[in-house]
Amino acid sequence: MKKLTPKVIKSKGEARAWSFWVINYFTACGFMELLPWVGSGYDMERFGILPVPSPRHADVFIIAGYVTKKAAKRIKMIYDQMASPKYVLALGSCPMTGGMYWDSYATIKRIDEVIPVDLWIEGCPPKPENIGHGIVMATNVVKGGFEGH
Amino acid sequence: MDIEEKEIGFSTVPFGPQHPASGHFHALLKVEGEMVHELEPHPGYLHRGFEKLMEYRVHPQNCALVDRADVLDPFSCELGYTNAIEKIAGLEIPERGRYIRIIMAELGRILSHMTWIGVLSMVLGFDSANKIAWGDREKILRLNEIATGGRLYPCYLCVGGVRRDISQEFVDETSKALDYLEGQLSFYDYFVFKNETFVMRTEKVGRMSAKEAIDLGATGPNLRACGIDYDIRKDEPYEVYPKVSFNVITRDEGDAYARSLCRRYEIAESISIVRQLLNNLPDGAFRVELSPVWAAPEGESYFCLESARGEKCFHVVSDGSPCPYRVKIRAPSFLHTLSEFPYLAKGSTIADIPAIYWSLDSCPADMDR
Amino acid sequence: MINEITSLLKSKFPDSLLNVVSEDKRITLLVKKEELHQILSQLKDTGFNHLSDVTAVDYIDEQEFELIYHLWSHREKIRAIVKVRIPRESPTVKSVVDLWTGAQMHEREDHELFGINFEGNPNLSPLFLEDWEEIPPFRKDFDTRKYVKEKYYLEEEGYPVAKG
To answer: Would the CB atoms of C104 and B339 count as touching at under 8 Å?
Structure first.
């Protein structure tokens, strides 16, 4: 009889990469293309990604869309409450440079000023395939041992 | 052992901006035990100063910007803006352009209602319906991509008509998608709307009478669930609505279950409208060509339309230059969240708050603009 | 029906109606500020029970704000638009919260974005903005591009680059 050997997870990076838990804080218009990932269109749960309600349980913070000054304070509070190692993904062009609302008096133009970002995904909003590519990149980097800023 | 009854005081519970059931909206609940006494809304987490931004852009740029004013139903915003400008200038759009506009608008209404089914099921604890509804929504996003190139914020309508013509592939795919969705409706009836748990959690919850609803400023399915048949597509018809036949769905109870049923039957009516329009689509031009810096003459106009959420109106003032002088968007979610929700939350329990909030179908991006 | 409404208003408020335009299903009135509340109350008694919107437009060249009330009658299916001009220096007008409850939030938004004072409104605290120290942002003398370029962008090689 052939002996069945189970696959052994070799590093904590690999264990972390297959269970990204995302904090359930969904901002603005860029978030709409994450709905197919949450639903059964592209289904992120088969990769081990779940939305969780509490910052203490989460590893990943996805900032999808523009951030107003009023919301920036709350984002900093949530980021401080998350436990290390923690990762931040910024989706869309609004957190990068201001995007479509570059001349708005109420939004901040670079999310870098508030929290450090590990991965930028471009688009307005990014298509679900783009987001999938970004998640695969993040998974590979975390498997290699990256522990966030 | 006797358990003494102690006095339970008031406490403040945040229904916060980071919450699985609240969207991006903050409310403070004044609670005694499980009973909610007062609800104080704090909007503004998504405010961009939309109407100010539109004063700096010319009309084609505004058509690309305005569909982010209501993220769950973008076509209604584009329709309102373009119609308001065309009313000031007295422009006549070719028939084929009008038909295509309303086909896309009704598909947008179905899209918004499918998203709403998913969200309401999620907050009631019914995760399977959430996943299935958001998977069915993909069919309509695929249709958007075939016709316009963009899935969600297509910027397809422009002042003068629509940007591109629709192809035979779009017409075939739409028929197939509508057949599929009509079959799914009977599945949703069995799985969600006649489900005992769903009925128990929404019946008699968040009830308002017709007089209260009118006083608070309710419109759309929220008002039609209280017995008043106010539908702008019938009362002040625009574009090609006089040429299609459909029913206005009203119910009498005024609670969350009545609002849900109104929306479910509206999906069926929208499918019928799109089929009628596709069967009678005329040939010919679809656009009046205008230069990008075309300026509307001086004047102002007020255009009202029926979006998926309710009455959406655009008040546009033009001073003869390529950029508009003032644009005001009357958003239906503004009064749903800030006027009806605090009124309905008084006297309910904490566990019913998400059910009341999402049965009013409000979009935080639409409220804040 | 529209003619009956306009003749009733003209007989009751002969001095305040500056301009009346009647179309197929719409009446547009331009009124004076003094009897605004009475005219709106009369319109509500005639059947206009739905208040759609309370809007403001800033005419900076004429140094005036124009307030616009949009009403709808569910029974007759007619729309009424009531406009009034108020001076820009200290804009004050009587609130209509006692007639329609939904007006409270519309007036709160106009107070925050334009600076118009509504007497009788129970709560005019800020709705959208937190810690806002400039003039009300929707006025025409607030240039949002200039504000944003100074606060958030550096001018490098002639075009703005986000600070960070």
So the answer is: yes
